[in-house]
Amino acid sequence: MEGIPTPVRRVLLGVFLNFLGSGLTMSLLMVYLHDIRGISIATAGFLLAWQAVIGIAMTAPIGYLIDRHGPVRVMVPGILMEAVAVACISWVQTVPQAFVVATLGAICGATIWPSQTTLYSQLTQPKDRERVFALSFMFLNLGLGIGGLLTSAIVRDGDAARFELLYRIDAATYLFLAIAVWTVRTHAAAARETFDRQRAAEGSYAEVLRDRRLQRLALGGVVTFICGYGSVMSGVPVFATQQLDLSVRWLGVIYGVNTFLIVAFQALVVSRIRGRSRSLVMASVGAIWALSWIAMGMAQFVAPVLLLVVAQGVFAVGEMLWAPVGPAVVNSIAPDELRGRYNAVVGLQWGISGIVGPALTGFMLARDLAAQWIGLLFVGSLLGAALLGSLRRLLDPVTDAGSGPRGRCRGRACAWTQGSSK
């Protein structure tokens, strides 16, 4: 991590340790609620969608608070309360209890992503942001992968005590992230000294939403994420265990392969795409994820474990392309004083996809419509690719190309033409 500031390294370590715990439980929530607590798949899917609704409702105030008070003061309390919510999952017995815990977790969890992205941007120079976002994603996945492999060794079908233990360990790992973020508070405060605090206080979401670049990026991201993370995270565990009759223990292996590829190749990918058209890189994510759904569909007919592994491997390629580029584009077009709000708006792609993906998955798989579900997500992925590709017409060449290995633009001429973004 040569050249990465020490404060950023601390946060990256906290991210790794936190997601080591998250990896223990990431693929299990719907399986846990259905198989251990007796909650229907449709209800479990609706529960995930409910969390996303709460996250969306929190978007506006969280973005404002980040710009007004800084990411650290917003993020640390959110992390601590999220830890409480995750621990409480292990005690959930009924649907009402599950909704109370899910609501608390959604409120607190909504503070983390926009705060963390804003924090990285404040602690790094623009030329280093793609690399930092890529490293964060790599460490996130390293934690998820190790945690997922541990899950496959610990969890047993129908053993409630082991599921409960995993959630309690997961909760404890949030403390590492909270400590890491708190230790960089003085560095984050120093980065805010040059801000126009009056504009940060008075800036509005109307100003943010008038940016056509943000509109297109957010819309393309939402469509792509519905057909990506929103459906994969909720759908693959149910598809594998209910449609293909695989043991829950295979989930750790399937996700572990996905994570191994990201950890092994993320640095290579970010070096290869540096300086290339960011809009076209993002568009390729949708096309690649469409291919992963083809592999998922084939798993219904032959070699289910192998094809699920292939599908997750292909999906990982798209993830490695999005991780450095998507956040870098947002923070390239965002004014410093409105950065929290820009990141919060783009964060809606997680919330909206978290509503539509699980709800669609629960509805269709509960009715044994697996083939139609996969076909719909295939088409949707291609639509997302088209929307993100059209962003190229709205970005100035410098923002679209980023910087090459020596800090020079590649591709189109590096002329500043901001008029198309108005």
Describe the structure.
The protein is an all-alpha fold and 422 residues long. It contains 20 helices and no strands. The protein has helices spanning 6-25, 29-36, 41-57, 59-69, 71-89, 95-109, 112-123, 129-154, 160-182, 185-191, 197-202, 205-209, 212-243, 249-273, 278-298, 304-333, 339-346, 348-366, 370-389, 397-401. Helix 1 packs antiparallel against helix 9 and helix 14 crosses helix 16 (304-333). The longest helix has 32 residues, at 212-243. The chain is globular, with a radius of gyration of 20 Å.
Helical stretch tally: 20
Shape: globular
Terminus-to-terminus distance: 38 Å
Number of strands: 0
Please give the largest β-sheet.
Answer: none
Strand content: under 5%
Q: What order do the SSEs take from the amino end to the carboxyl end, as H and E?
A: HHHHHHHHHHHHHHHHHHHH
Helix content: over 70%
**Quaternary class:** single chain
Structural class by sheet pairing and helices: mainly alpha
Mean pLDDT metric:
86
Low-confidence stretches: 404-422
Q: Which helices and strands, and how do they pair?
A:
Layout (H helix, E strand, L loop, with lengths): L5 H20 L3 H8 L4 H17 L1 H11 L1 H19 L5 H15 L2 H12 L5 H26 L5 H23 L2 H7 L5 H6 L2 H5 L2 H32 L5 H25 L4 H21 L5 H30 L5 H8 L1 H19 L3 H20 L7 H5 L21
Keywords:
422 residues, 20 helices, 0% strand, globular
Short description:
By secondary structure, the protein is mainly α. It contains 20 helices and no strands.
